[in-house]
Amino acid sequence: MANLFYAAFVPGFQDYIAELVKERLADAAIKKLLEGAILFETECTYDKLNFFCFNNIFAVIDVLENAAKDKALEAHIRKTLGKPSSIISENNSKIRSFRIIFSIENKPSAVNEAAKQEAENFISHASGLKIDRSNPDTEFWYLYRREGFSLFMKRLTRHASFEKSLHPGELSPQLAWLLCRLSNPKHTDTVIDPFCGYGSIPGQRIKYFPLKKFYAFDIDKAPLAFAKKKITAKQPCEIKQADIYSIFDVLPRGEADAIITDPPWGMFRETEIPLQKFYDDMVGIFSRLLKAGGLAVVLTAKQEEFRQAVDKTPAFSLIRTIPVLVSGKKAAVFVLENHFV
């Protein structure tokens, strides 16, 4: 039996997400590829998907096409009332309550109270679950997209709001996972993050991609202390307080197979020298740290400064650029390949 899933991810990664889905699920049929989301069908069940790049995953119960924005959610409620679905009726023993979320273009939306109660009563009767609008065990969603369709779904993942739980400038685990995956990880890799901050990138690289050694550096003590709590002493990671200019005191030239990093954008952390000069120096140091054929995966909102720095560094070729949206800010992921040692 085919399962239809809707999964949300960092906006901008659409093409790369499509590549991952096709690579990992041979039978996957991508129904819609959207900004920040994908709708795909597969025989694979949720417990075997093992995608760590999605912010949330939903089991899709019904799709309403060509829906008018102002009437879509209530029209979709009317369409789905009374229709049996195993997605609604089958829940594990830990799931005892639910609520319904109504959303239009990724913003909470109100619907007619009578229609809402009808939907709640239908789901409660079909599932045996209690209605709990404040602290439920699971959620059902009616979601309208600006592309002109709506989805009726059950939420399968249960992530906290990262905007509330992350420190300023800290990457979400899903974004850090994507950056690590872009480095073509191998179990023999030596990897460096010169601006590790709270340890999102080393944490995801070590957890999901076997490697030889990870070296994580930062100049700020407070984030480093947090990173050290996140990454245990038994893991193949060395965390040191150091700036980009002193890394060669710790590592020899040509040591790294990959650099994966999120350098200062001049927003949450200022640099002591002009940002363009800092980026010029940084990219030059990256080229000397990497082995021939090594990759640098860099996330930054300072796209023009970074491009200029790459243009000044003949050792590098730019092999991929992915414009992304991070916490509402326009940024880009750059993948560089080193040709010299």
From TrEMBL:
Ribosomal RNA large subunit methyltransferase K/L-like methyltransferase domain residues: 166-313
Domain of life, per lineage: Bacteria
Any one Gene Ontology molecular-function term assigned to this protein's record: tRNA (guanine) methyltransferase activity
Pfam families to which the protein is assigned, alphabetical: UPF0020 (PF01170)
Keywords: Methyltransferase, Transferase
One GO biological process term: tRNA methylation
Protein name (Swiss-Prot/TrEMBL): Putative RNA methylase family
Species per Swiss-Prot/TrEMBL record: Leadbettera azotonutricia (strain ATCC BAA-888 / DSM 13862 / ZAS-9)
